[in-house]
Amino acid sequence: MIRKLGAMVIDGVWRLGFATRFLFLLLRYSGQSFLRLHLTLREIYFSGVLSLLIILVSGLFVGLVLGLQGYETLQRYGSSEALGVLVALSLTRELGPVVAGLLFASRAGSAVTAEIGLMKTTEQLKAMDMMAVNPIARVAAPRFWGGVISMPILAALFSAMGILGGWLIGVAFIGVDDGAFWSQMQAAVDIRYDIINGVIKSFVFGVAVSLIAVFEGYDCVPTAEGVSRAITRTVVSSALAILALDFVLTSFMFRG
Amino acid sequence: MSRSTIDLWVGIFVLMGCAAILFLALKVGNLSASSFAENYTIEASFSNIGGLKVRAPVKVAGVVVGRVSDIRYDNERFEAVVSLTLDSRYSFPRDTIGEILTSGLLGEQYIGLEPGGDERALKAGDSLKITQSAVVLEKLIGQFLFNKAAEAPQQ
User: Fold this and answer.
1) Between helices A141-167 and A96-104, what is the axis angle to 10°?
2) pLDDT tens-digit map of A129-156
3) Full domain range(s) for residue B15
4) Distance in angstroms (rounded) separating the CA atoms of residues A30 and A210
5) B154 lies in some domain
6) Rounded distance, CA A112 to CA A135, Å?
7) Do B14 and B74 belong to one domain?
8) Number of structural domains in chain B
9) Cys staple from B95: which of A85, A97, A165, B116, with CB 3.0 to 4.6 Å?
């Protein structure tokens, strides 16, 4: 029992160290991979463009729900015009980056892990090494940067769609005053404080999710079972990383 | 290098992202009003600031002209010292009165400036001579009860 626990801890620290070294390797070889930009563009297409639909639709629904629930509570205090503030602040500060990050991890992160894991299982990575093609520069770095670039864009789209959803429910269906909805929102939302911080958050989540996805794929046990375990680990540890990082970033950004 | 359809889609994707950020910046957050390019800072001491927070607005005649940039406690005069960062497009007389007001019954607290009649204007680093502290609800209720009790025997 204790021996098992110790082995788990040592294994965890080992993997953490390997992940850190892997990050440095990624950054070192990303210059090489930027020379062949179409590889990164391809990955932006696969992890960003193909995630558009789920991000847009779920953003819209989150906005609709926020609009309904927010109106329900705010109208008790006779301040239903503050609906715009509620929807915009909760989306730009928290929900946009976090929910988009979770969706991105399960939609794109898992696919990246599966792809790299399968490449490792079928020994394509080793074959590349034999042909003097660096697999980190050729396979890992473009996927990493594709995710890092896609994530802030997806989070911004999520927030924008959510605000439109809140507007749709609040103004178009329930009948909150249109001018008050936007003007109160504009008075309360600050560019640097709320929006830029939201973008920074989504960028950090993008780095975390992409690193976890690429690393888990690269580090997986090269069997069918190993790949499936790696995918599960990607989704679970991405979700945990996003929520934990969100707490840390929020306590830095929004104090006082 | 030939152009492929993937490039087109990535282009559309990035454009959509830029549009979303622009939408957030221009329509949701008010880019023009909340950031003052050129500003100057003055100080005001209050014996009680109530629930005033950093970044609360500073208003003159209801128009936002600046923000509270810092709140600290002066341990020699036992007062709160509030730094106000004002837009340098506006200048105010030196005998301007600063007061802490509340927007609405339960709204946030802000600083209202009441311009005086002095010909010299406030400069950066000046402090307001006359200030009026926040109204504390408990004190107000206490005063009201006290007055009621004083009135009662006369009837």
Assistant:
1) 130
2) 899 888 888 889 999 999 999 999 999 9
3) 1-32
4) 14
5) no
6) 14
7) no
8) 2
9) B116
Which residues in chain B show pLDDT less than 70? 1-3, 30-37, 104-107, 153-155
Say if residue B53 is in the same domain as residue B122.
yes
Contact B28 A44 (CB under 8 A): no
Question: Cα separation of B153 and B147, whole Å?
Answer: 11
Helix (H) and strand (E) counts in chain A: 12, 0
| Nearest Cβ partner for B6 among A42, A163, A186 | A42
Nearest-10 Cα torsion for A150, A151, A156, A159: 130
> Based on the structure, what is the number of domains in chain A?
1
Q: Determine the Cα–Cα distance for residues B1 and B153; give it in Å rounded to an integer.
A: 97
Distance from CA of A54 to the nearest CA of B (A): 14
Same domain, residue pair B74 and B21: no
Domain membership flag for residue B21: yes
| Tokens linked to A163 | 């605000």
The residues facing B111 across adjacent strands are B58, B100
Residues A126-162: b if buried by 16+ CB within 10 A, e if exposed:
eebeeeeeebbbbbbbbbbbbbbbbbbbbbbbbbbbb
Provide the pLDDT for residue A81.
80
How many whole angstroms separate alpha carbon A117 and alpha carbon A195? 36
Q: Is residue B26 part of a domain?
A: yes
pTM to 2 decimal places: 0.75
A16 is in which domain, residue-wise? 2-253
Query: Is residue B17 domain-shared with residue B43, that is, in the same domain?
Result: no
3-class SS of residue B101:
strand
What the block records as the tokens of A234 is: 């990607």
> Crossing angle of helices A52-74/A96-104, nearest 10°?
150
Backbone angles phi, psi at A170, to 5 degrees: -70, -50
Contact (CB<8Å) A189/B54: no
User: Which residues of chain B does A52 touch, with a Cβ-Cβ cutoff of 8 Å?
Assistant: 13, 16
Contacts A190 to B, Cβ<8 Å: 29, 34, 55
Give the residue from A91, A190, A194 with the most B CB atoms within 10 Å of its CB, the best one to mutate.
Answer: A190
Find out whether A10 and A110 touch, Cβ atoms under 8 Å.
no
**Residues A183-213: tens digit of each pLDDT:** 888 878 888 788 899 999 999 999 999 999 9
Span A228-247, pLDDT tens digits: 999 999 999 999 999 999 99
Pairs of CB atoms within 8 A across A/B: 80
